[in-house]
Amino acid sequence: MIMQGKKGLIMGMANKFSIAYGISESLKNQGAELIFTAQTDYFKNKISDIANEFGGHEVILCDVSKDGEIENAFDQILKDIGPIDFIVHSIAFSDKNELLGKYYNTSRANFLNAMNISCYSFTEVCKHSQKLMPNGGGLVTLTYYGSEKVVPNYNVMALAKSALETSVRYLADDLGEFWIRVNSISAGPIKTLAASGVGEFSKILEYERNRSPLKRNVTQKDIGDACTFLLSDLASGITGEIIHVDCGCNTIGVKF
């Protein structure tokens, strides 16, 4: 029960197939008390039953694409629940129609929107995290290997994840003096609502499974347990890192 007595916020869960669900399940199993945000009333209704299952707190609305929403949500949490110990940021977005074909066909509007929601939102979360974690704590966001190498049909999301990973390093430096740690998990391909927008995703799963030393794809539990470790006191000396949880598939280049 390495998270016993700790409270934290999960941002971006869409359903039971979300990576955020696996993280929530692992954190809950290790004793954590959980709070959830949702972008709209639609998503709030979708995850209310899950929130009740994991914590019982009312889901808080927070559209990270809009100015002031993150700060207002954090103020509400501080008022109704009090200080917390960790935040999980599982939020990313691109128009799925622009994840097909050539990257250079990405529109300016989608480029800016993808960067705003997928990268800048985490910067703003970190900015306001100090009020929620006056005694220090941990933040984890989610990235993907497409930030390092070309992955078919990932396009603008690759740039957003690259920017997010760089942000993690700078934010870790910014928040270190407040005893707040900032890390990221680079998860291998896994079936989620977001992944369904990536063209030919089943082929990516098959390819990664075949070249993985463990001969399988990563699971929600794999990612959830790694995140729980990073947010626990067991990882008190780890910050500014991009942790790969991918069954080792990125340890091998071309295997003959």
Structure description:
The chain has 256 residues and is of the alpha/beta class. It has helices at residues 19-29, 41-54, 69-80, 108-132, 156-175, 201-211, 220-231; strands at 7-11, 33-38, 60-61, 86-89, 137-143, 180-187, 242-245. The protein contains seven helices and seven strands. Helix 1 packs across helix 7, helix 3 packs parallel to helix 4 and helix 4 runs parallel beside helix 5 (156-175). It starts with 6 loop residues before the first strand and ends in an 11-residue tail after the last strand.
Distance between the termini: 43 Å
Tell me the major beta sheet. 7 strands, parallel
Secondary structure: helix percent: 40-55%
Portion of residues in beta strands equals: 5-15%
Unreliable spans are: none
Structural class: alpha/beta
Radius of gyration: 17 Å
**DSSP helical segment count:** 7
Output mean pLDDT.
Answer: 91
- Strand tally is 7
* Widest sheet, order of strands: 3-2-1-4-5-6-7
The secondary-structure element order is: EHEHEHEHEHEHHE
Shape: globular
Topology of this structure?
Elements lengths: L6 E5 L7 H11 L3 E6 L2 H14 L5 E2 L7 H12 L5 E4 L18 H25 L4 E7 L12 H20 L4 E8 L13 H11 L8 H12 L10 E4 L11
Parallel strand pairs: 1-2, 1-4, 2-3, 4-5, 5-6, 6-7
Helix pairs in contact: 1-7, 3-4, 4-5
Please give a handful of descriptors for the protein shown.
seven-stranded parallel beta sheet, 256 residues, 7 helices, 14% strand, globular, alpha/beta, 41% helix
